[in-house]
Specification:
This protein folds into 2 domains: 14-152, no CATH class; 157-197. The chain is 26% helix and 20% strand. The chain has helices spanning 4-8, 26-39, 88-93, 158-180, 185-189; strands at residues 16-20, 41-43, 56-59, 83-87, 97-98, 100-102, 118-120, 136-139, 143-145, 151-155, 198-201.
């Protein structure tokens, strides 16, 4: 019988899922990450999802394999190395399920309630259609709400992790200054909030 301790020691199995942000540049993707954590919401999309069901998409690729981000066999990626990481059980409890990789000809064999999980997989075609490297999970929601206790921020470097904390602290300085205009500065200071998120740095 396989125990949970055995699973933890497996480098090819992850207990986490990561939603990666996109952007034309790393700066775009970084700002999108900040917007997501500021709002505590990831918006779902029905782009490339048959049936038009909006979903929030994630990858179960083990984080230790993502030093260069989520890439396919040739090094191609459409993602940045910035993301939000969730516990797999947390995502499952909100309706998250692994994608079903199969030919389009088998799509109609799925029940209506599972068709949002379909991802086309045609490895015998030329060129092959193969997105299994994404190890995709989907949650069928128009928006996914979460708090700092539900997720971990993923960034590629310590420098960018420090930048997240620094910008949070600067925003707090400004808010405390605003409060100090209408109340005693010592009282205003009591409203200061520490950076609430845990951060995973891919390069460490």
């Amino acid at each position: 019988m396989v125990s949970s301790c055995d699973l933890v020691s497996r480098t090819d199995i992850s207990t986490q899922l990561i939603h990666f942000t996109k952007g034309n540049t790393w700066d775009d993707a970084f700002r999108r990450l900040q917007k997501i954590i500021g709002e505590g919401t990831i918006l779902g999309s029905n782009h490339l999802i048959k049936g038009g069901v909006p979903c929030v998409c994630m990858s179960e690729a083990p984080v230790q394999s993502l030093m260069d981000g989520l890439r396919n066999y040739t090094g191609y990626t459409r993602y940045s190395p910035f993301g939000i990481m969730f516990d797999k059980v947390w995502a499952f409890s909100r309706g998250g399920r692994p994608a079903i990789y199969e030919p389009d000809a088998e799509f109609e064999l799925l029940t209506e309630s599972n068709r949002w999980r379909h991802v086309r997989y045609e490895p015998t075609m030329t060129p092959a259609i193969d997105f299994t490297w994404e190890r995709e999970w989907r949650i069928p929601v128009s928006e996914l709400n979460f708090g700092s206790g539900d997720a971990v921020i993923v960034v590629p470097s310590r420098e960018l992790a420090d930048q997240l904390v620094r910008e949070h602290d600067l925003n707090q300085d400004y808010e405390i200054w605003q409060y100090s205009q209408i109340m005693d500065p010592s009282v205003a200071e009591s409203y200061r909030e520490a950076f609430p998120w845990d951060i995973k740095v891919l390069s460490e």
